[in-house]
Specification:
Among the domains are: 33-126, OB fold (Dihydrolipoamide Acetyltransferase, E2P) (Beta Barrel), CATH 2.40.50; 154-290, 3-Layer(aba) Sandwich (Rossmann fold); 423-464, no CATH class. 47% of the residues lie in helices and 19% in strands. The protein has helices at residues 33-47, 85-88, 128-144, 172-184, 201-214, 244-252, 269-273, 281-288, 292-328, 331-370, 374-418, 421-426, 443-448; strands spanning 51-62, 68-73, 78-83, 100-110, 115-125, 162-167, 188-193, 225-230, 257-261, 276-277, 431-434, 451-456, 459-464. The protein is flat and about 160 Å long.
Length: 465
């Protein structure tokens, strides 16, 4: 009901009637800072719940949370902009500094800093000119890094065993490629299905290229060549193949890569980073394999030419051999002389061996006649006499040494007996022992001992104090 709440209370409360007798004031209503901020927030969000804003992106910052904070500006003003993480992944383009874009979203305020900002829902480039300028700047940047250098491009194998294809599984592109391969030279094809347009397409294509390269070398599933293909479309449709992550993935591929994006007149940045560009997907299949029939004809032609060449060489060498043979003479006659000489030398060898054996036999008989056992027997008799003489001398010497040693031992025994303490005991002396059988030799030592033992010549007697 209009005019029901004249004071426009920010919380929708009815006006408070003045107290009876209170003076009526014409002053505007009083708000707290929070009340005023919330009122402004509702007004702005209600008035600008859907807007399209064109401007240049500046101050691009992606927080750790994944949300994008930036600003849109023109010659006269700047407005803060936010793109939440979930929306950012769905944008058709990647926001970059200096891009001229048209953003769709809603306006809101941030009371904490008393400013208003645009919540971005969609983003597109403002005109094809801006898009081309952005692509040209990106191309120069990547070229400066050497990603487009011819020196780093790899050679496409002549006849690959496995071909990896990165494209949409439902489009006509994969059917055209398979049809052309079957016509020319059927090969094993591995399809890595991806989306080729819209949000997430660039990421999917880059992951597919990296995925094929991650297959271990030597594996039967590792492609020998990769084809990245897409049908024709507008510049905006082909933008995923201009994305920096796709270009870098193509440049980093260790497997040779053929790009076939769009029609013959379309050019994307992946074409510069690939090892070979094909104007169409069908042309990519043609560049990937040769024509089997043409290859068979080529091989058969080379085989026929080789057969003819071998025949000609054989005939030429045969004639040359015949000419050389005429100059050598008859080999049979040459061999007859050698055989006769060999027989003559063999006969001489036999006769010489018999003669040598006869001479050696006569010499042995001559030496045998000179050999007699008498000198040997004489030497044996002399040796026996010497041995007998030495044995007698050894016996005499042994007896004399034993006699002398026995006599000396007897003398030593007599001396030992005369010096024995037992002979001293027989003359009237005695020996005193303590309890440990140690000899006590002084009276002072005897006074210190408790138990003593005295040994006489006929026995021992204990002594107690």
């Amino acid at each position: 009901m209009p005019g029901l709440f004249d004071n426009d209370d920010p919380f929708g409360l009815p006006p408070v009637p003045p107290a009876p007798g209170a003076p009526v004031s014409n002053a505007p209503p009083e708000f707290t800072v929070s009340e005023l901020s919330n009122k402004l927030k509702r007004v702005i969000e209600g008035e600008f719940s859907f807007v399209r804003v064109r401007g240049e992106i500046s101050k691009v910052t992606v927080a750790k949370s994944g949300h994008l904070y930036s600003a849109l500006k023109d010659d006269g003003a700047v407005i803060d902009a936010i793109c939440w993480k979930g929306t950012l992944s769905k944008l058709g383009i990647k926001p970059e500094e200096g891009m001229d874009v048209v953003c769709t979203g809603r306006l809101t305020t941030y009371p904490g800093r008393s400013n208003y900002q645009l919540i971005i829902e969609t983003m597109e480039l403002a005109g094809q000119g801006a898009l081309l300028k952005m692509l040209e700047d990106r191309k120069k940047k990547l070229a400066a890094e050497g990603l487009f250098d011819d020196a780093r491009k790899k050679k496409i194998p002549f006849l690959p065993n496995v071909i990896g294809v990165v494209t949409s599984p439902t489009g006509a592109v994969i059917r055209d490629i398979m049809h052309r391969l079957n016509e020319r030279f059927p090969r094993r094809v591995l399809l890595w299905p991806v989306i080729v347009q819209g949000a997430g397409a660039a990421q999917a294509v880059a992951q597919a290229i990296a995925g094929f390269n991650s297959i271990p070398e030597g594996s039967p599933d590792r492609p020998d060549v990769i084809i990245v293909a897409r049908g024709g479309g507008s510049l905006e449709d082909l933008m995923p193949f201009n994305d920096e992550i796709v270009v870098r993935a193509a440049a980093a591929s260790k497997i040779p890569l053929i790009s076939a994006v769009g029609h013959e007149t379309d050019t994307t940045l992946i074409d510069y980073a690939s090892d070979l560009r094909a104007p169409t997907p069908t042309a990519a299949a043609e560049k990937a394999v040769p024509v089997r029939v043409e290859l068979q004809s080529f091989v058969m032609e080379r085989q026929q030419r080789m057969f003819v060449s071998v025949q000609r060489l054989s005939q030429r060498y045969g004639l040359q051999l015949q000419g050389l043979g005429r100059g050598l003479g008859d080999p049979k006659r040459l061999l007859e002389h050698a055989v006769q000489k060999l027989d003559h030398l063999g006969q001489r060898l036999d006769n010489g061996l018999v003669s040598w054996l006869e001479r050696k036999s006569a010499r042995v008989k001559e030496l045998a006649a000179k050999i007699s056992p008498r000198p040997l027997l004489q030497k044996i008799g002399d040796a026996q006499r010497h041995i007998k003489n030495f044995a007698e001398r050894l016996t005499n010497t042994e007896n004399k040494i034993l006699h002398d040693r026995a006599k000396h031992l007897k003398n030593l025994s007599a001396m030992l007996e005369s010096l024995s303490f037992e002979r001293v005991l027989e003359r009237g002396y005695a020996v005193v022992y303590d309890e440990n059988r140690n000899i006590v030799s002084t009276a002072g030592d005897a006074a210190k001992k408790e138990n003593l033992t005295i040994r006489f010549k006929d026995g021992e007697t204990p002594v107690k104090k």
